[in-house]
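Problem: given the chain below (169 residues), write out its structure.
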Amino acid sequence: MSLSLTQFKKTVATRKRKLVLFLKKFDEITVPGLSAMVKKADKEVWNKIDCMDCANCCKTMTPTYKKEDISRIADHLNMKPKEFKERWLLQEKKSGDWVNKSTPCQFLVKNKCSIYDVRPKDCAGFPHHHKKDFELYNDTYIQNLSSCPATLMLVERLQEKIEEEYIWK
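Solution.
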């Protein structure tokens, strides 16, 4: 699917508030069969979205680099980990996490990841739809609504399905 990021941004601007309210409901209620619904909707979404056409996460977010990521990527670039960190990363004071100094990601070249085969595990797992059970990961879904068209589409599909079946609006 050829993705229009302009259209995505417009959709987020008009729908995000309602979708956030929908996601916050999972802090209070349980929906029977939710895991199966999420799995089915997620599969449908990935049949329509190709991350390689989008790269919005690379344009608007930064991954967290673990020690293993830094070593692997530095080695790939024929650098020492210390040199890699000094050149490309900064360490957040509050969390101690290593992140990119700036966005878009320095490794995004012509909308493609120039270190794709050795990219950080955080990038490889994004948007983390399978990291934890859906209802336990609301904050991540809320955060990713504005950055990931697949997350937006997944949450929209779930909202439609759940409100159709359970009539909680």
